Every structure is written in C-alpha cells, then in structure tokens.
Amino acid sequence: MFGAAGTGDTSGYGGLVRAAATPGSSQRPFGGYFDQVADDLERAYPDFADAIERVVVDRGELTLHIKRERLVEVALILRDKLKFEMSMGVSGVHYPEDTNRELHAVYHLLSVTNNQRIRLEVSVPDVDPHIPSLVEVWAGSNWNERETYDMFGIIFDGHPGLTRILMPDDWQGHPQRKDYALGGIGVEYKGAVTPPPSDRRSYK
Amino acid sequence: MSTYADPYASSRETTEGTVFSVTGGDWDSLVTEIGQAKEERVVVNMGPQHPSTHGVLRLVLELEGETVTEVRCGIGYLHTGIEKNIEFRNWTQATTFVTRMDYLAPLFNEAAYCLGVEKLLGITNDVPEKANVIRVMMMEFNRISSHMVALGTGALELGALSPMIFCFREREKVLDIFEFISGLRMNMAYIRPGGVAQDLPAGAVDKILATVKDLRHSFKDNEKLLVGNSIWMKRTEGIGYLDLAGATTLGVTGPVIRATGLPLDLRKIQPYSGYENYKFDVVTADTCDVYGRFLIRINELEQSLRIIEQCAEKLKSLEGAPVMVADKKIAWPAQLAIGADGMGNSLNHIREIMGTSMESLIHHFKLVTEGFRVPAGQVYSAVESPRGELGAHVVSDGGTRPYRVHFREPSFNNLQSTSAMCEGSMVADIIGAVASIDPVMGGVDR
Asked: What pLDDT does A50 receive?
C-alpha cells in the first residue's frame, strides 16, 4: 500500500532471517498411546517399514506419513484392526517449496472404541497429483475428497464422482493453492485508493 | 404431445425417452403429457432458494411418483473463501473471519480455531481459568441459541408455526446475554487466541442466573407443543432413518449419531476448556430417526443450563481474575470496553499508549499490525458444536499469519447423509430429514 518492496520489514532488523523449523521425524518411544498404535499397526501390517515414510509426534499428536501406493491398505488395516472407525475428513495443504512433494493430503482419523486420534499424511508432486481414493474405506470421504480436489487439484483415483463441490463447475484453477492469488477489488473513496487485499503491503 | 410451445413446460426427445422440463407457471400441459407417458420418473430441482431446504441448499430429486429414488445435494452457494482469506490476515484477525462460518454457532468456530492456535503456541495450559469458564458458558449459551433455531425452523419447515415463535423468543434472550457480555449479538470474535476479548461486565453473574431461570421455565412451552404431539410424531417417527454403521462410515457426528444410541460427545470423551470439571449427561436416543434427534436437542437444552449454572458458581469466586494469558507477547494489547455505541477501544488504554508510554504504543503497534509468530507445525483441535465435531486443522510455517486452516465442519459431513436418509422415502419426508441434520450452509460452504 505504501510502496514498500521486499519483506516490508520496517524494524531495522531486516537482516535477521528466522528459519521455520518444521517438526522432524520422531523416534520411539512416542509417548502416550502412540507406541501402542504403532506396535499394533506393525503387527497387523508386515510392510509397515516400507509403507510409512516417517512418523512425527508433535504437540501431542501422531502423524503417519504414508506412501500413496500403500494408503488404501494402511487405511483398511487402521479401520478393521485398529478400530479407527471414523474418518474426520481430508484437508489439503500446498507447500510450493517442498519440491516433488508439493501437495499434501491430510486425513484425520478417530477411533471411537479406543478414544484415539491419529493423522495420516500423503504427499504427492504437483506434476502428478494422484492419490488413491478412500471412499471405499470410509464413505464419508466422498465430499471431503471432492473439496480437496476442488481447492487443490489433487486427483483422487477411484472416486465415484470427482467433481467440484464448492466452486462453480466451470471455475478455472484451484483456489487454495499458494500460487492462486487472493484477488479482490480496490476501493476508492474521495480520491484515495485502498488496494485489494492481496496487493496491500502487509498482506504480501 | 402439445402442439404449441409452452415457455414454462417444454419437452424434448432423448435417448432415454421424452424429457419434460418444467420451470414453474403452467403445470397443466405437463400433467396432460405425463398422463400419456408410460413411466413416471420425474427429476425435481428443489432449492437453492426454497423456504424448506434450511438455507441455500439445492436438492436434485429423482422421483417415482411420490417416492424418492435418488437425492443429490448441490452446495457451494454460500462459499465465501474464509479459509483462503485468513491466510492473508494475522492469527488474531482470523477469529473475525471464522466466527462467520457457521453463523448460528459463532463461538464454537472461534473456540475450535483458538484452541488450535493455542496448541500450536504451546499455551493450552496457560489460558487462565476464568477465560475457560467464560468460554464454556458462552459455548453452552450458544448451543441453546443454535438448538432453538434448529427446532424452530425444523418445526416451521414441517408446517408447525407456533414452535418457531417460542424458539426465537428464547433465542433472543440468549442473544441479549451475548450482547451484554461481548457487545455483539452474533459473530462476536469474543474468544481470542490466549483467552477471551474482555472480562464480564458488572452484574453479569446475576443476569446470567436470571436468564437461566427464565429459559428453564419457557422451554416448557416448546416441550408441551411438540413432545408427544401425535401430528408431530407422525411426521418425524421412523423418518430419515440412519443407523450407527451408516453414521460411522459417513463421518456423521452430533445429535444424528447420538440418535443411534452412541454417546459420542467430545465434551465427555476428549474434554477441552475444562469440560471435565462440569457435571452433565450426554443425551442419546435409540430410534435413529428425526424424532430421536429432535428429543436429543430438546434434552440437551437442560444439560446446557446445568453447565451454565455451574459456570456461574465458578465465576462468583473469580471476580477480577485475568481472562487473557499473562504472556504480553501474545495477549492482545488493545483493551476493549463497551460504550454507549457497542464494543470499542477502551479510552484508558488509548490514553496510556497515546499520552504516557511510548513503549506501550510500540508494543501495541507491533502486535496489532504484525501480530505474534506461531511456531511451525500442524495440529487438529476439535470441539463439540451443536451439530457435531467441529475440527480445525491449523498449519503454521512459523509466521505471523496462518499457513493453512481447514475446518472440519459437522454440517458438511452430516449433509452427506441426506441421500442415505431419504432415498426410498416420500418427498415430504425429505424436509424433515434435512431439518433433523440441521445443516447451516454458511458452515457447509465456508
């Protein structure tokens, strides 16, 4: 808005770069019921080491990063053997800097029987955004996968009707991706112009 | 076949036979033509502007006579891009956006989001007790006002007009409390990361207790009107059947899954904001139908009142206690006060930052314009909203703005079960089934 380029840092400490540290892989013991979940999964699923890319325990939550080819197998075992009866939805996240793993689909699972929650994360490259659909495992994934397709362009193979759900059918682009501008309309009042949100300095 | 072109009712030949399109107006020619046809398959578009679809919901119905053979929901008419917008605002500003998603349950949206942000910040246990008590109390009041709309409009859609009048009367009393405490009746952005926006005004506890007493008395009007009413039961019993297996696989939560007999209530099984310190019962039913969901909502009102009374007891001994985390690097510096024209800046605070303390001004400026930083990572926080599990998947990259926030909206997941509930039933029963799911389209579409 005021024409500042670059970071817009007006504090004088612009040279300080703070690296965002994403939580890394965790080692056993994971703590809480997470060890039990991991043990049960390893026992029920012999290919555990091959299918699970890494396990992250952060802020009291367990995330299993899974290879996309193995997603359906793991999901079936989690549902039938480990009693994760409910899938609480799929949410996409776009990390443009994470080369060859730009698009992440995150599944939140709830076990009513054991009162446990875990999270599955699958990452795929932008050029090949295919993930097998979990509609056959949890029917409720239907709309969630459609929403993630609509917002991120992740294609869920095997989905019974993968169409847009929130945006109009003829919409171009996938709005929640980071390369999709927020847009907006500038407002003029008595000669002064307030630029659209995505062009204001603080929102860059 | 008609010999003239009717602008409202035309027909054309397709590979599947003659297709009639009717867009309103003259039904006579349709009735004549259908009388000649051999099958009676009719596709009806219901909504999105329809008084009985509970909001801007579009239903595409395939009918065989009066029987529904297929239902498809069309949603997205209220998509506002809230999840995208908050990626361009700081962590505190986002509360103002999320409160507008499910507009009947604004405090739950704020709570789910703020609990997520607090978990990312690692300050969940630092939130002062009074803030937690106020949050619980406000959420339970909100549950009442939301259930009031669910019951009132649900009854209205089925043709019972009087309950709507009573329900909105009760809701108004709750909104008065909201206005008294937060300055706003809806979309109040009252729950903030780290606590609540401001302390209770003087005399709040007495007013709360008086309102609880009043509500408990007037809820009886609705109960007398509907519970056990034979006309109401004919429209609701055995309608919109969804059993436990169906609800589980579809990810349905809230009153709909509790009507299958499963006491799935996050307030009990995974307590947050101190819900483990309150005595209340999880209401269930075992009928799996619209009447069961209706009874659950009616009985949850009393449980909410019980929790509010316990909150009021706790608040009596918390006079003057803080309502925001002590960490000044996170706590919102601006102090709000309710003036004659609603909530606004506190004059004392303005006097301090503009008149006496340069450091306060800098601190205020930095936090309000830039905001605080949240360590990188992702969390999922869930609360039991009136419609079920409202979850917030909050992702941070370590910056002053959310990297990505996705809301697991109970309305969205529950609405998926419309097809399972309605296919094979009569057209008129769709209205009851959808009303019993109680979808709020602002939440479905976000």
From this structure: 83
